[in-house]
Amino acid sequence: MSTSPQPPRPPNPPQPPGRGAPIVTILLLVVALIVLACGIAVWMGVHVISHAVHVQVQEAGNGKKEVSIKTPIGSLEVHRDVNEASLGLPIYPGASRRNDDNSATVNLNFGDKARVRILAGKFETPDALEKVRAFYHDRLGDQVTRYKEKDEEGKTVFELKHDKQTRVVALKTAGDKTTIELVRVTEGQTEGN
Questions:
Q1: CA 147, CA 151: separation in Å to the nearest integer?
Q2: How far, in Å, CA of 75 to CA of 54, rounded?
Q3: Longest Cα separation, the chain
Q4: Count of CB atoms within 10 A of residue 180's CB?
Q5: Which of 11, 33, 153, 156 would be a feasible disulfide site paired with 171, CB 3.0-4.6 Å?
C-alpha cells in the first residue's frame, strides 16, 4: 500500500491590511479633539463673560427697579425717572402718569462709538382729545416737522426731528380718557433738549 505523497499546500495568501479600523480610530480621535476644543472655548467664554459683565439692580421706590448692565462692548441702563425736563416735551396740565410701567429712560452705550438714549412717558387725562391736541399744537408750534391726524393705530402724532434727536407726542382716545405718549430719542454723545 503505497501512499502517495500529498502535494504541498500552497501558502496562504497574505491578508490585506485592515483599512477600516485605523481610519475609524483616527476619525473618532479627531472628533473627540474638536469636541474637547469646543468645550474649552465655551468654558473660557463663560468664564470671561461672567467676570466682565456687571449687572446691578437697585430699588428705585414704589416697588420699581432700576437696572444697569455693563459689558466690555457697552452698557444698558434703565431708569424710571421721566419728567418734562428730561423729555424736552411739555406734559399736559393735570395729566397723570399711567401705572402700567410704560415710562422709563433707557441708555444704550457702545463704548466711544455710539450712544442712544430713549425716554418714554405715558400719561392720561380725562380731557377730550381735541382739547389735548390744541394744547400741543399751541405749545409745539413750528417746531413740529411732521403731523399726522390719525396714524395706522388711530393716534394723532406730532413729530419734532432735529439733528440727532427725535421727539414724538402721540395722542389717542381710550374710553373716556385721552392717553398721551411722549417719546424722546437722542443719538450720539450730546445731551441737548
A1: 10
A2: 9
A3: 137
A4: 24
A5: 156
User: Which of 14-28, 47-61, 176-190: highest mean pLDDT?
Assistant: 176-190
Pairing of strands 54-61, 74-79: unpaired
Residues in CB range of 84: below 8 A, 6 or more apart? 90, 91
CA 135 – CA 89 distance, rounded (Å):
12
Residues 143-159 have pLDDT tens digits of: 888 888 876 677 889 99
Residues 45-63: tens digit of each pLDDT: 887 777 776 777 777 665 6
In whole angstroms, give the CA distance from residue 17 to residue 5: 35
d(CA 119, CA 94): 20
Task: Please tell me the pTM assigned to this model.
Answer: 0.62
**How far is residue 139's CA from residue 141's CA, in Å, rounded to a whole number?**
6
C-alpha cell at 66: 432700576
Three-state secondary structure call for residue 18: coil
CB 123 within 8 Å of CB 156: no
